[in-house]
From TrEMBL:
Top-rank taxon, per record: Bacteria
UniProt keyword terms in alphabetical order: ATP-binding, Nucleotide-binding, Transport
Membrane-spanning ranges: none
Pfam families documented for this protein: ABC_tran
Family matches, as SUPFAM superfamilies: P-loop containing nucleoside triphosphate hydrolases
InterPro entries xref list: AAA+_ATPase, ABC_transporter-like_ATP-bd, ABC_Transporter_VariousFunc, P-loop_NTPase
Domain (ABC transporter) ranges: 4-229
Protein name: ABC-2 type transport system ATP-binding protein
Keyword Nucleotide-binding: yes
GO function terms (MF aspect): ATP binding; ATP hydrolysis activity
Length: 293
C-alpha cells in the first residue's frame, strides 16, 4: 500500500517555486527521513501532504485520498508542525479532551498511558511545559488519533540531546506498537540515521534522491586514485561529486555494480556523508541521476 504518492508536484508562492517537479512514492510501514537545506521545500511538502496547502501543479495522494478532502481523510493523517504547536492556556488534560472531541478514532487509553509514562502532569498548562515536554504532548496528540501516516516537521529541532533521544525512542516504540507510517523532516541526519529506514533528499525544491537507507549505503562509494578524466569511468557509475589535485582524483559514485578498477581505493560513506554530498552538489557531475525506487 502506498501512503504518499506525488506526481509532478509543485507549489509556487508568487514568483518563487517552493517545490517543483516532485515525484515520490512511499510505501506503508516505512519511517522516511526528509532532509535538505533551508528553503529546499521540506515543510511545503509536508503541508501539502497534510492538506494545509493546495498544489500549484501536479498531484498528491495520501492514504488513498486527496489531502484534507474531508473528515475521513483528515483522520488518516497526523501532523506535528515544526513549532510543536500546543495551546499554551490549556492543560495537558484539556488537550486530550480536545483530541478526543476532534478525532473519531481517538485512542484514550493510548493517550493516557503516554502522558503517565513520560511524566506529564494532567493539570499543568502547556505554556509552562519544557520544550521537550511540549514536543512529547504534540506527539501524543498525533499518535493517539491513530493515523495511518504521521507527518513530523522538525519536531526535535529545539530539543537538547537527551530530550531528542527520548522523543525519538518514544516515536520508534509507537511505530513498532501501532504500525504507523512516518515521514520525519530534520536537519539532524545522525538522528534520522537512528530511526529511518527510508530517505528523501530535497535540494533546490526538487527531489535529488529517494530510496531505502540500506540500498543507498550499499550503492554509493567514495573512490580515490590517480588523476583521471571522469569520461573514462564506466557508464553505470553515476557521478555525484568529484574533486582533483595535480595527481589524484576523488569521486563519489552511485552504482549497482562492483568497483572492478584496481587503481581505485574504495571507501564507504556514512548516511550523513551521502546526504551532504547531494546537498553540496545540486547538479550531478555526470550524467543526470535517476531517482532510486
Amino acid at each position: 500500500m502506498t501512503v504518499l504518492r506525488a506526481e509532478g508536484l509543485g507549489k509556487k508562492y508568487k514568483r518563487r517555486w517552493a517545490l517543483a517537479g516532485c515525484s515520490i512514492d512511499i510505501e506503508a510501514g516505512h519511517v522516511t527521513g526528509l532532509v535538505g537545506p533551508n528553503g529546499a521545500g521540506k515543510s511545503t511538502l509536508l503541508n501539502l501532504a497534510a492538506g494545509m496547502l493546495e498544489p500549484t501543479t501536479g498531484t498528491i495522494e495520501v492514504c488513498g485520498g486527496v489531502p484534507g478532502s474531508g473528515p475521513d481523510q483528515l483522520a488518516k493523517v497526523g501532523y506535528v508542525a515544526q513549532s510543536t504547536p500546543v495551546y499554551t492556556a490549556l492543560t495537558v488534560e484539556e488537550h486530550l479532551r480536545l483530541g478526543a472531541h476532534l478525532n473519531p478514532g481517538w485512542d484514550e487509553k493510548l493517550a493516557q498511558r503516554r502522558v503517565e509514562r513520560i511524566g506529564l502532569d494532567p493539570k499543568q498548562q502547556a505554556g509552562k511545559l519544557s520544550g521537550g515536554q511540549r514536543a512529547q504532548l504534540a506527539l501524543t496528540l498525533g499518535i493517539a488519533k491513530r493515523p495511518e501516516l504521521l507527518l513530523l516537521d522538525e519536531p526535535v529541532a529545539a530539543l537538547d540531546p537527551l530530550a531528542r533521544r527520548e522523543f525519538l525512542s518514544d516515536l520508534m516504540e509507537s511505530v513498532a506498537e501501532h504500525g504507523v507510517s512516518v515521514v520525519l523532516s530534520s536537519h539532524l541526519v545522525a538522528d534520522l540515521e537512528r530511526v529511518c529506514d527510508h530517505m528523501i533528499v530535497l535540494v533546490d525544491s526538487q527531489v535529488r534522491i529517494i530510496g531505502d537507507v540500506e540500498d543507498l549505503r550499499a550503492t554509493h562509494h567514495r573512490l580515490s586514485g590517480p588523476r583521471r578524466d571522469l569520461d573514462t569511468l564506466p557508464s553505470d557509475q553515476q557521478v555525484i561529486s568529484a574533486s582533483h589535485t595535480d595527481r589524484q582524483t576523488t569521486v563519489v559514485v552511485r552504482t549497482d555494480g562492483p568497483i572492478l578498477d584496481p587503481s581505485w581505493t574504495v571507501g564507504q560513506l556514512t548516511l550523513e556523508d551521502l546526504v551532504l554530498e547531494y546537498m553540496s552538489n545540486p547538479v550531478t557531475a555526470r550524467p543526470a541521476l535517476e531517482v532510486l525506487r
